[in-house]
Amino acid sequence: MSPLTAPDCHATASQRPAGHLPPWLRRLIGGLASLMLAVTLIVVLAGVLAAATIIETYLGAAAARWYVYESPWFFVLLALLAVNIAGAAVVRFPWQRHQTGFVVTHVGLLILLLGAAISAGRGEQGRVTLNEGESADEMIIDGRSRVTAFAVGDSTQQPYEFTFAPRPFDWDAERSLHVGEVDGVAVDVSALVHHPQLKERWIADQARIGGPAVRFQVNEAAGRQVAEAWLVDQQFGEPGNIGPLRMQLARAVNDAMLADFQDPPEPETLGESGLLLAYWGNDALRIPVDANVGSEFAFGESGLRVEIAEYLPNARPDRLGMFTSADDRPLNPLLELWVVTPDADEPLRQVASAKEPRLNLDGVYGRVCPVTFRYLHPAVSTPFDVQLLQTPDGRLHARTIAENRPKVRGELKRGDTLAVLGGFELQVIDYLPHARRDISFEPAPHKSRNSQAEEEEPAALVRLNVGDDQHQVWMRRNDPIYGRRVISTADGAWALQFDNARTPLGVRLELVDFERRPNPGNVGNAAFISRVRIQDEARGVDREEVVSMNQPLAYRGRHFYQFDFEESDHGGASSTFSVTIDPGRPLKYLGGLLVCCGIALMFYMRAYSLGRNTSATAHVTAAGGTVSPESQEATA
């Protein structure tokens, strides 16, 4: 029998080695390896990817990842595709020479899917922001959040960290998410709002720690309401505007402060540089600034002393947090003070401002100065229309200011009214001697779900369980005010912090220098260049590299991309790097290369087979023979 008329040596799938298997198993393998399943999966995947694109367009990338790319059913779909690809190759075993391209292509596809699975399971994507000279050994994960709980004042106890991936939609208590529990400390997220707006109110503080809060209503002479708002005194006693009135609420530390409030010194008695009033305990000091700069004054035998370190007639802050005087004009009089306490090794730095009476450095240094100061200066007019002072026994006193002359109005109670400048009437709607802020967040109205909206930080109702004690509080991620809250429990005070999750970089990255190169004529930017230092102590690596827009840094599976930058007014700069840790990247590259090579081999083997078939047909025809269709198909 001529080789060209021999039976087909390329058996069909049903005639391959699976022929000795049970019929049901042969049907299962044939079905998983069938072309019909491959076409169906490809069509389904195309539809799913189209739907994912629409979801990402209207709901954002986080929603597309949640509903499609990172969902279990999508991984099942890809796993089924991998089974189909593997089955299509296995059922053709043993492979023939002309099937080399087919096998290489399918192996490449399997390696590509394997690399994608490894990237999805073990890959991380985040960012690192560094100022010049700063370094970091961890990166921020944008797609994950972290709640940290720790006992306040207990340095022996390690913080408890709980991480979770926020769902891309808002949820309430019916969908509460249990984040984790360690050593009897548990954290749950009872509600989450992705595009929040703040809703706050003032309520009575049962612990009697918070300062006073007064709710006022401002009416015109005709009785029409102009404004209604809360005026509060918490840590710093910030002034507030209620309608057309500028008001301030403060707390008196003793009776002497109330006496000075009701009967302040006349401007003519203040001297050229003003008068400093200092209150502590039941004592008060009245210190003329003239001729007393550099002098110390003591509160009796207590050991507590006050020194006027410097008089600044026109104070200006510098970038280092210090004050200097621009000139000798008394436009912004301020005193630099030292407070010496008997139980401290170093004196406390403090300031007293004539224009901003409640300005102090307690928030800067994270402590509370035991002495309360008021600084009066003849060149500075009282900047308020109405001032209120709460006495230690909880009574509320008021005075109005007209033409820089205070007028004492006596004690105010809930429901009282007060005639003020401009014919307005001020009415006390509510008064809380000790108040605390009760905040919550609700979805912001008419918020579009686009890429810009995704940059907003979500708010969460976090529930903390310490033993049998349970508390919940609203927090906003990375917010300087609402990102950290303190809760009083039966075991003492606990602090909660809500921010982005972190993960180790595996190396230390330092920003040595940042350079922005503008285009000719300073129209736009030509390049952003960061010079960084990579330190890996475990491998003895310590070298400098360059990261720019088109030149990422690759180091041990980590890729650093120049993402953003910020330049400050004083010449410094910060740089933000997008960081990708992708352990599946080499497999994805290898799989893509094999797919390309396999396709090229298939075209090559097809052309080679066609050439052989043409030569064989011509040879047989010349000899007067014929070639059967089966032989032509086998050769092809």
Q: What is the overall pLDDT average?
A: 85
**What's the tally of helices?**
10
Q: Characterize the largest beta sheet: strand count, sense, and whether it forms a barrel.
A: 6 strands, antiparallel
The total count of strands amounts to: 34
Q: Which term fits the overall shape?
A: elongated
Helix fraction bin: 10-25%
Unreliable stretches, pLDDT < 50, 5 or more residues? Answer: 1-17, 448-454, 630-636
Proportion in β-strands: 35-45%
In angstroms, what separates the terminal alpha carbons? 19 Å
- Computed Rg: 38 Å
Supply the helix-strand structural class: alpha+beta
Describe this structure in a few short sentences.
By secondary structure, the chain is of the alpha+beta class.
Structure explained in plain terms:
This protein is of the alpha+beta class and 636 residues long. The protein contains ten helices and 34 strands. Strands 2, 3, 28, 29, 30 and 31 form a six-stranded antiparallel sheet that branches. The protein has a five-stranded mixed sheet with strand order 9-10-20-21-22, covered by helices on one side. The chain has a four-stranded antiparallel sheet with strand order 1-34-33-32. A hairpin with a 5-residue loop joins strand 23 (417-419) and strand 24. The longest helix is centred in the last third of the chain and has 38 residues, at 585-622. The radius of gyration is 38 Å and the shape is elongated. Mean pLDDT is 85; it is low at 1-17, 448-454 and 630-636.
